[in-house]
Design goal:
Strand content: 35-45%
Keywords: Signal
Shape: globular
Helix content: 10-25%
Low-confidence stretches: 2-10, 259-269
Radius of gyration: 21 Å
Protein name: GLPGLI family protein
Strand order of the largest sheet: 9-10-11-12-13-1-2-3-6-7-8-14
Number of helices: 3
Number of domains: 1
Organism: Leeuwenhoekiella nanhaiensis
Length: 269
């Protein structure tokens, strides 16, 4: 623990430099629960679709940060995922490439989001998550990480293709984060932040986010700026817009679902 303390003190001194920056790369995965019924749907076909959908959710994100700001977005250099296609059925997962800017000193965030082709800019206050610091530790790469947890009430939507309707289910989930005091900044992937160290791993329900690489003070200076462009709304308005757009999509597709060759599922958050 003494060596960690010495490292933290030395790094904290480096943080006082005005040009301090870091770049963290994260890999995101999501567990897929898929159940499809039909006289022509075999177990092998269902497994093939589930495997391909799972691959589509394997994303790489880049978090750039300084002492007070961070920018989190998908790595644009990677190729777009293939569309799952089997047995004459095509399923496409459409995921918006959001850009999330957080300013922890000003307690605000901005998120640029594409909702069915229309760009919005969500601007709202940044609420610090209510983390519970645990004693458990583990190593991630060269860093010693500490565990933190919090609970959150969420509402999930299940799309029922036979009725072309969504079913809401509300439940409480536990979010687990692993942070390292060896990089004493309060940033993390997505909306996870507010711990005494950079968050390197998050287990959020069926989604996992794991840091695979960290570069501190890169040679080329990085511009950390809030996204621009799009209709400005707050978070509450954004949620209402998403619900309305989902209803519009269901109504638009319910009339021609008999030719049902393509299903598009919008995954938020």
């Amino acid at each position: 623990m003494l060596s960690i303390l010495v490292f933290v003190l030395a790094f904290a001194e480096a943080l006082t430099a005005q040009d301090f920056q870091g770049v963290a790369t994260y890999k995101s995965r999501r567990q897929i629960d898929l159940k499809m019924e039909g006289k022509n749907m075999t177990d092998a076909m269902q497994k093939q679709i589930a495997d391909q959908l799972k691959k589509q959710f394997e994303k790489t994100y880049i978090l750039t940060f300084d002492r007070n700001q961070s920018l989190y977005k998908e790595d644009e250099k990677l190729a777009k995922p293939d569309v799952a296609n089997t047995g004459g059925m095509q399923i496409k997962i459409s995921q918006s490439r959001d850009i999330l800017y957080k300013n922890t000193s000003a307690r605000r965030y901005e998120r640029q989001e594409d909702v069915l082709g229309k760009i919005f800019l969500v601007q709202d206050s940044l609420q610090k998550p209510d983390w519970k610091l645990e004693k458990e530790t583990k190593s991630i790469g060269d860093y010693t990480c500490f565990k933190a947890t919090r609970t959150e009430e969420v509402t999930s939507q299940t799309f029922e293709s036979d009725s072309m309707k969504t079913k809401d289910t509300t439940f409480t989930k536990t979010i687990t984060a692993w942070y390292t005091p060896q990089i004493p900044v309060s940033h993390g992937p997505a909306m996870n932040w507010g711990l005494p160290g950079l968050i390197l791993e998050v287990q959020d329900g069926k989604q996992s986010i794991l840091c695979s690489q960290i570069v501190l003070n890169p040679e080329d200076k990085i511009a950390i700026e809030a996204p621009e462009g799009g209709k400005i709304v707050d978070e509450a308005s954004m949620k209402a817009i998403q619900e309305e757009k989902m209803k519009e999509w269901i109504e638009r597709n319910s009339s021609n679902r008999e030719d049902g060759k393509t299903f598009t599922i919008k995954i938020g958050g």
